[in-house]
Amino acid sequence: HENTTAFKKATFGLGCFWACDALYGAQPGVLRTRVGYSGGTKSDPVYKKIEDHTEVIEIDYDPKRISYEDLLELFWNYHEYGLTTIVKRQYMSLILYHNEDQKRVAEISLKKEAHKRNEKLITEIAPAGPFYPAEDYHQKYRLQKYKWVCDEIGLTPELLQTSHVAARLNGYVAGVGKEEQFEEDVVSFGLPKTVADFVRNQMKENYGGNLYC
Ligand code: MHO
Q1: Per the domain annotation, does 212 fall within a domain?
Q2: Ligand 1 center to residue 16 CA distance, Å?
Q3: Cβ atoms within 10 A of the Cβ of 77, count?
Q4: Where is the signal peptide (predicted)?
Q5: How many domains are contained in the chain?
Q6: Cα(185)–Cα(195) distance, rounded to whole angstroms?
Q7: Complex confidence, ipTM
Q8: Protein residue with its CA nearest to atom 2 in ligand 1
Q9: Is 150 assigned a catalytic role?
Q10: Of 16, 20, 150, 213, catalytic
Q11: Could you list the pLDDT tens digit for every one of the 213 residues in the chain?
């Protein structure tokens, strides 16, 4: 419940959601992520029939460790298709706010960013409505490429949407996140050596982030 938990929710669309999942998943202060369809009016969209919805990421975050402003900073800087080119609704630039405070911060942030770039940005800001989780195979897509890793640490389809460990590893394998942070996670999560070695190697290979679809 909004008022009884320290965590807050943020919902963004900034292109293919596989990339968003990896970008946000490994940020300190992010508890969990899941990808899905939102922002439209039709019921029960699916990947093959997304209707008027957009691919979005839903983030549960600890506002004491990462602010909404920080999340927006990442948002502005990681649009695969940029902020000025109109793309289909599936990949549109979209901020879905969960309360008036997020709305206000997002509007200010958009103005600032447009001013900084000296361009009109296509980003839309709207209230968050129903969120439809995407099919299992889209969740933690980067990590699921390595099925043996998911099996090794017991990631069920449900955990792919709820697990903090899954969110972080999905970011790490795409090259997001710092090495020191990863080494701390290896210890605190008790990652098996095979998994830790593999992820460490992926981080090196994708150093700096290999996000896009
Ligand atoms: N070009 C990507 C898009 C995937 S995405 C989840 C593909 O391989 O289908 O929209």
Answers
A1: no
A2: 6
A3: 11
A4: none
A5: 2
A6: 12
A7: 0.91
A8: 213
A9: no
A10: 16
A11: 455 568 999 999 999 999 999 999 999 999 999 999 999 999 999 999 999 999 999 999 999 999 999 999 999 999 999 999 999 999 999 999 999 999 999 999 999 999 999 999 999 999 999 999 999 999 999 999 999 999 999 999 999 999 999 999 999 999 999 999 999 999 999 999 999 999 999 999 998 878 888
